[in-house]
Amino acid sequence: MARPLCPTMAQEAREMLAHSVEKIAERSDRIRIVISRALLDRAFKAHFNRIWIREEIRSGLETRLARYVHARIAEPDLDVGSAAEMLLSLGFELGFVHREVLETSPEMTRRLLEQFADMFGRAVSAPPYRGSPAKAQKGKK
Question: What pTM value is reported for the model?
Answer without folding.
Answer: 0.77
